[in-house]
Specification:
The structure is a homotetramer. By secondary structure, chain A is of the alpha/beta class. Chain A folds into 2 domains: about 160 residues, NAD(P)-binding Rossmann-like Domain (Rossmann fold, 3-Layer(aba) Sandwich); about 180 residues, Dihydrodipicolinate Reductase, domain 2, CATH 3.30.360.10. Chain A is about 30% helix and about 20% strand. Chain A contains 11 helices and 13 strands. In chain A, strands 9-6-10-13-12-11 form a 6-stranded mixed sheet. A 5-stranded parallel sheet of chain A has the order 2-1-3-4-5, sandwiched between helices. In chain A, helix 1 links the parallel strand 1 and strand 2. In chain A, helix 1 crosses helix 11. Chain A is globular, with a radius of gyration of 19 Å. Chains C and D meet through strand 6, strand 9, strand 10 and helix 10 of C and strand 6, strand 9, strand 10 and helix 10 of D.
């Protein structure tokens, strides 16, 4: 018996990924679809301009899209709502007792909302209980797509003591949703700016790596500086990271931890948990965006090109599939973990 | 009366740019074309697979290509030779009394060879006289394409005292020459490695910014760490730079120097000297590769997106047209300056 | 003394090209800028998101944009208005005595409006006098971008007697204006549909090649079938054409006419008239979009890859720069010709 | 018990696809890998520069590559050999009793070699027995990638009586193998020429649609004219087809046949046989290269945008995944069918 779920923002780019990834999912079944009032009342096949390279799932085509005002039967809601409506809408659903697992940015930094990467800080999910007491339901958030790649690439080595780091990103166009970036702005081009992105990459990791004391989260103190860029790739954010450690760290210290890394989702056999969670490449020219983004069905973050840094200590590249692990897939993995931990 | 020059490596990507940029040049006339023995003896229009978007100059089509073994009449040689032959060939030309102004990497770090960006270190050209005494002729070199962008973007602010910096590059495919990167390796992709590129960007700037004492160059001590990437753009290397200064530096300190920067080529009205040499953009989303690479006919380096860095002090983006300012155009500007300074 | 002109739709993609191409124009000076009410009242540098790779002309930056309701001082108006407003607005300007030379599709097929490619049917401009009598002013139109390429490629050989033809196009994204095609819809993709494009390519050429009898135009009877596609190129529409002639035609019949072709703009030395108007390539792999679109500053149409067709008679490729010759540049050339013919 | 097979040309682009598609194949197991003498003797993981977005199969990495001179144990050989060696090598293998199922062009038009698309002309496989008697073994060939798309799109409607047709292709870069097209030749470009491609598309379909009388094949007489182009897409050849029928044909005649089409591989449940073999789209903007190439795991050919032609009768677009259905996948499907028909 699968759990019924609703997808919020179902016609958008992230919503479509939710629907694609939830087709034939062992735990969840898409029962309701929610979108803007423009789409509400229409069958999904009419409301959505399907943009993925796999066909729209048959069971979804005839489902009538609901508006955010209508009551929902599903308890678990996966949210890919636009940030201009997600703030209020997600709070309203929480007040009605729903568990909202969201990819939207609005509530990520709220004190009582966990910002979760399941391999890294599953213990932060305890905030769900505190929220339930306060609001009836709860909001759980998935980090920014570039953040997810960065923290998964760093997770194996954080215990070595990271002082600070500089990261430069080369982000795919799908990160901007649809219609997103006009083609005239990106073909044969690189754009050195993505509105609001750098602060997210600089702040979210420290909440994720923060200590939870049963009541709240004390952020981790590592300083991060991000320089972000949009490049003409479809999916996959590549990041160049240079790290200053607190003490001497050898290549072997890093490599052994990268190779041995796993988290609770792997141990609990969550259906979307990739094995490995982090793929380490010895090759100096990997990861590459197109070659490696599909690893672990888009859920594995890959790391490679590890080399000494003449200013800090070590530098390397990492890659995350921004709309799978970095968005819908990461959000679903949170729900899978919550289910196995008896939280939903 | 124009000076006759020869183009070495005339059929390659850099050689073609030399020929394009020297068409109707007020100082120089392409008198001889030199390429590998495979091309030697053929008219240029047969030997070269012309790849530029302006037609092959008429006066060049029928010129018969010479091999590197044949004696040359021109005193000034512009070299775009491949690095596997440039080392010996350029030395041989120097021994015969030629002035070789080269875009090849082989002799850039030689003690008695100047590595010149005309706006920055024209005084290093004095090494030419030392070479002439020793060898008969001289070699003068143009830095790596990414280096040229970086040092021109930094030149205005070096006097503020730069401690160290981290730079991440997003480089165009034309930087790899022709045939260069297979399309299957770069469409919808980013490649985090370019063989031998990072050391050049880390070392060449310190020779360029070095002090010349009449005999040799003492390198500048700023530490630089480079992380390089190939992206699917045609021309133009975009760089993300984060800089640590020795003391407090304000935005106004940087901006005023960026805007006021000029060098000897501008003062002496060298034909290829762009005005400005450095274009400063207030906009946070500039420079962009395709929009800004042609500024100053490809000779202007542009800088923008200046913002504070939470790890160092300031970060910004810069852009250089890698095959114009970063290769053939930069080399020609050296010759123009040498001419005006009475060195050739 | 230059003629003052206004640019209608000045902030759009075609409007920007008008402004770029009219900078330092010997005949015309941009005196007024007209755009939607959203832009009206603002200086142009604020109203327009400049997207061209040359800087916005200095003299334009501070000009205050007018709305389509405001009266204009300029007699000659270059229109790049969107088709949803061009219909009425251009008629209103005509009624006020203006000469509107338009790139918009709305009035192209009007009986008394000439649809002009200056090298082909300058005699159709006589309709201007008929319009002036009737309306006070006149509208003159420039064909669809793909049509312009097709008719210029065909013009030299129409006298050989063309029965019918099939043409397949591969069109650049700039043809869709800005923001135009979302990047997610075109990267690593080909789209076999452009709304309303095929009928234009099938019908407009027959008006252009039609006979003018002093009162009206009898369309040419050649049947044309078009299959259009959007491809990931920035500028330049490449077309594959297969032609059935009424009688036997040799390669030499075609090539000699292609090479010898010129029109009235070339004879009258119009400033934007390219020489040649049509560039013929012997090479089987030319024209190519990126290599050849800038020929004649974007005003030359190039033709190549001529070979026998096993179903019709001859097939070849042609290329037109869609936003220069195919839009703003073609429109300006009409005005230059009208000026030299004493019509404005 | 799976049949052991060898992959010839195992390190090339087609060879890598064979290896990818044969991983966990129910009928066949890759037992031997053959490549040029440069690769022979090395483990495959060293010899091949793996370029696919799924990891190299584990069981393959350590296999030592054999040269074409070495004897092979496998009876069935899948060939992706380069055409400069395939001619002689495949004949030599045939003489030794092997069944060579080849993607190379060399023997496609040989009188006694079948050129097979399993849904269309499985009866041509009877030529295998004739070859065996004559040579000991046999060669079976897979058509050109563009041909396969074209004939599968046409197969449902050939019975309506096709007089002639014109087809224009927009082909992906992977069709040129690796390294194939230099990126500088295709980014922001379209190239109107692919050496030798047009004759294949014009001739091969008539052999495939030819009648087999027990001894040989009489070619079908439909005239085809092809105009081919290379565009910047990674995989997937899109084709624009206009067809002249012998008599009046309605939209319903075409659509009903497109929708109802299936062949012997579907009936016999060959593992790689897609269902449907041909996907028909009502939408005017489909198929699109990136959205539809993966249908049926890359084995389905899709057709759409059906509309009347003003010169012929009907025109439409079709799409084929050139390296799956158009190369390795099509070849494997031949073998699967031969196996089920008791021919191997």
């Amino acid at each position: 018996m699968k759990h019924h779920v609703a997808v919020l923002g179902a016609t958008g780019a992230v919503g479509q990924r939710f629907i694609q990834l939830l087709e034939n999912h062992p735990d969840f079944e898409v029962h309701e679809l929610v979108a803007s009032s423009r789409s509400a009342g229409k069958p999904y096949s009419e409301a959505a301009k399907w943009k993925l390279a796999t066909p729209m799932p048959e069971g979804i085509r005839q489902k009538v899209v609901k508006s955010t005002e209508e009551p929902l039967e599903s308890r678990i809601l996966f949210s890919g709502l636009d940030s201009d409506v997600a703030g209020q809408a997600e709070e309203a659903y929480r007040a009605k007792g729903h568990i909202v697992i969201s990819n939207s940015k609005n509530h990520r930094m709220d004190e009582d909302v966990p910002l979760v990467v399941p391999e890294i800080n599953p213990e932060h999910l305890a905030l769900v209980e505190l929220q339930k007491k306060k609001y009836g339901g709860a909001i759980v958030t998935n980090p920014n797509c570039s953040t997810i790649g960065l923290v998964l690439g760093l997770a194996p080595i954080m215990e070595l003591g990271v002082e600070h780091m500089i990261v430069s990103t080369m982000q795919a166009i799908s990160g901007a949703g649809y219609p997103g970036i006009p083609s005239f702005d990106i073909l044969d081009n690189v754009v050195p700016h993505i509105g609001g992105e750098e602060p997210k990459i600089e702040e979210e990791p420290n909440k994720i790596f923060g200590k939870f004391d049963g009541k709240g989260i004390s952020p981790n103190p590592t300083r991060i500086s991000a320089m972000v860029h949009r490049v003409p790739s479809l999916d996959g954010h590549l990041e160049a990271v240079s790290v200053k450690f607190k003490k001497t760290v050898t290549r072997e210290d890093i490599v052994s931890r990268m190779k041995g890394f796993e988290g609770e989702p792997q141990k609990l056999n969550c259906p979307s948990a990739p094995k490995p969670a982090v793929q380490y490449f010895e090759a100096v020219d990997r990861p590459q965006t197109r070659l490696d983004r599909e690893l672990g069905k888009g859920m594995t973050v890959s790391v490679g090109n590890l080399r000494p840094c003449s200013v800090f200590d070590w530098k390397f590249n990492l890659l995350v599939h921004n709309t799978v692990r970095g968005a819908a897939g990461g959000t679903i993995l949170i729900a899978e973990l919550m289910l196995r931990k008896g939280m939903i």
